[in-house]
Amino acid sequence: MANKTILKWAGSKNRIMDKLLPHLPAGRRLVEPFAGSCAVMMNTDYPAYLISDANADLINLYQSIKSDCDQFIKEAANWFEFVLNKNEFYKLRDVFNFSGEFSGNFANKLSRSSLFLTLNRHCFNGLCRYNSKGEFNVPFGHYKKPYFPVAEIWAFAEKAEKADLLPLEWQDTLSLVDYGDVVYCDPPYLTNEGAFTQYHHSNFSHTAHEELAENLRALHDEIGVPVTVSNSVAAKELYSDLSFTIHEIDAPRTIAANGNRQPAKEIIAVLEGYHD
């Protein structure tokens, strides 16, 4: 069974870890430009990690836990006790949104990160969604007793000792990849209609998917690093045209608009590493 993560997360790789691990080769460091729930980091054992995401709230959460796990747990536990019903959830969401972009002050970062965890565990289906103003807008989840992930927080803090956690766009993260690294990308999934997929405050367009795939191909060709990508079957042609090896898998659904939770087809696209 896969190790659990701190966050509830739509599309968490915990559900396909047994299928993904065979496509993550050994290396000196795993580089992930789309951190998500950090399921891959928590279920691998690389000597080092570079974990990044464009969502500063997500990286702030991970940095806060790494900096002071004890204090984070105390702060988050206090917020959990506050959310007893729908009204209190929305009050807390307003507090989070009013706080805006956190400052460099540790106390402010800690407060915002503990609020972020609390909202995640109480909101609908573990979604992480923002409106055009950058405000978190996921509704209340109506769960009887949301789980406080204290064991998972401690496990993350221990693993994070080997990790650099950075709030970066994927392009900036790929610029830091070096010889001996392994690259794993889990971008917002491409839809069959080629529609926009939300990525933090902006949208991840079809053009962005093409740019990512082309950059990964170029990076592999330049320094020989192995590259693994998770995506929907809608991205199969994009990656196969760039000579990625495509593996189709059945993945349990976590969210479906029509209520269908039957397994969905996904791809794992792979470029094997090479050395001069």
UniProtKB/TrEMBL annotation:
It is an enzyme of class 2 (transferase). Keywords: Methyltransferase, S-adenosyl-L-methionine, Transferase. This is Site-specific DNA-methyltransferase (adenine-specific). GO terms for molecular function: S-adenosyl-L-methionine binding; sequence-specific DNA binding; site-specific DNA-methyltransferase (adenine-specific) activity. It comes from Xenorhabdus thuongxuanensis. One of its GO terms (biological process) is methylation. It comes from the Bacteria. Pfam families: MethyltransfD12. It catalyses: a 2'-deoxyadenosine in DNA + S-adenosyl-L-methionine = an N(6)-methyl-2'-deoxyadenosine in DNA + S-adenosyl-L-homocysteine + H(+). S-adenosyl-L-methionine binds at W9, K13, D53, D186. Belongs to the N(4)/N(6)-methyltransferase family. Its EC number is 2.1.1.72.
